[in-house]
Amino acid sequence: MSSCKFFFRTLGCKVNQYETEAMQKLFEAAGYTAAEEISAADIVVVNTCTVTAVSSQKSRQMIRHAAGVNPNAVLVVVGCYAQSEPRVVEKISGVDVIIGTKDRARIVELVGQALANRGEKIFRVGNVDDIRTFEELPHAPHRTRAFLKIEDGCNNFCAYCIIPHVRGRVRSRSLESIRAECLALKAAGYKEIVLTGIHIGAYGRDLKGVTLVDAVKTVLDAANPLRLRLGSIESAEMTDELIALLKTDVRLCNHVHLPLQSGSDEILRAMRRPYTTKNFSELTARLVDAVPEISIGTDLIVGFPGETDENFSETLDFISKQPFSKIHVFPYSARPGTPAASMPNQIPPPLKKSRAADALTISRLKAKIFSKRLIGRTVEIIAETSERGIVDGLTKNYVRVYVPDDGIELGAVVTVRVEKIFRDGVFGIHIA
Ligand code: SF4
């Protein structure tokens, strides 16, 4: 039983959020308790991200900030940036423990070593290319919507992406392990489960005769959630069977996130993306036809090396014609060790910035058009957070709804009559 207190700071994706919740559970199981604030902790953990140059910079800033506000704590740096630049992290003053993306399950043991040998650096960053099994971590969600990690790694090596280099090859979680966690989520009363992973469309590739559809059916069967939401999925892996499930099973949220990355076939080839704009638009048309009110979100990289004005206007033209409800826009960010980082014709930052602004204008317009469709209608949300007298939550098709807090219980299903566009979503009146 330890009297030590821990505190986590997390950057990055849903998978990182899930892994933070899992590492917190490991500390709690070992008798540690969570500190309310960073300055009160004996152990500070920064779970890092390196998907863009900005997230790497934010990771370094967060590490230095932690070392500054609590120099006496054991400072642990874990995750994708630690995996990508371990020697840089090692040199940051105050860092005691460095763990990559391989041995999160050993974090309590490694911190124990650091506590016992203050001043000694614990370095645990291995080669991710030889990881073959999914790292099982205990998990207890800390939010209304439960993230459920089912897969790690990626085999695609898109030309701009650092993730396969820091997360390794595809590893799928066994259906038995998924079922076990679903039974726990059901017992805990979670109404919405979000399937997440680094590349969920590749789920099962390393397991014989198993696919993402099997994982989806396992969750629906074991947890029988009110809602099951799919995390980001590659368009090339949105199978007929998955679309049929989206169409027929009302528990599956009518919301998908399909990274497009570019609306120019020439740039998609340079990115080594496994589809064309024709494939992509045929898929979105099928989804809109098959699944009522479906919301389709996407990611877009602007300013990829070699992207001409013509390529970019093709992209703007393409995205403006797609039934998107949200477009996340990323100015291209060169990642160390990726093919695109050494490609000729790198786009100057000011041009990347103006292209991002143009794409964001379309994104905002599309989000508004999609949200506006709800005005005057009644929708259901799961109350997620309450702030300054306003509760918010998501519709099944991923519109954020804000409603006055008249004593709404967080986690409850709330019926709202939508009145107007508000912030990044809509505002409404609580009717049941
Ligand atoms: S599919 Fe491509 S973009 Fe997605 S994680 Fe894999 S390499 Fe990165």
CATH topology of the domain at 5-126: Rossmann fold
What is the percentage of strand-forming residues?
15-25%
Distance between the termini: 46 Å
On the 0 to 100 scale, the average pLDDT is 96
Reading off the top of the CATH hierarchy, the class of the domain at 5-126 is best stated as Alpha Beta
Distinct bound molecules = iron/sulfur cluster
Helix content: 25-40%
Number of strand segments: 18
CATH homology-level superfamily of the domain at 5-126: Methylthiotransferase, N-terminal domain
Poorly predicted parts: none
**Spatial order of strands in the largest sheet:** 2-1-3-4-5-6
| Class from secondary-structure proportions | alpha/beta
Secondary-structure arrangement, i.e. CATH architecture of the domain at 5-126 = 3-Layer(aba) Sandwich
Explain what this protein looks like in three dimensions:
With about 425 residues, this protein is α/β, with parallel strands linked by helices. Among the domains are: about 5-125, Methylthiotransferase, N-terminal domain (Rossmann fold); about 380-430, Nucleic acid-binding proteins (OB fold (Dihydrolipoamide Acetyltransferase, E2P)), CATH 2.40.50.140. About 35% of the residues lie in helices and about 25% in strands. The protein has 13 helices and 18 strands. The protein has helices at about 15-30, 55-70, 80-85, 85-90, 105-115, 165, 175-185, 210-225, 240-250, 265-270, 275-290, 310-320, 350-370, and strands spanning about 5-10, 35, 45-50, 75-80, 95-100, 120-125, 145-150, 170, 190-195, 225-230, 255, 295-300, 325-330, 380-385, 390-395, 400-405, 415-420, 425-430. It has a six-stranded parallel sheet, with helices on both faces. β1, α1 (about 15-30) and β2 form a beta-alpha-beta unit. The longest helix is centred in the last third of the chain and has 24 residues, at about 350-370. The protein starts with a strand and ends with a strand. The model has no long low-confidence stretch (mean pLDDT about 95). The structure holds iron/sulfur cluster (SF4). Iron/sulfur cluster binds near residues 158, 163 and 198.
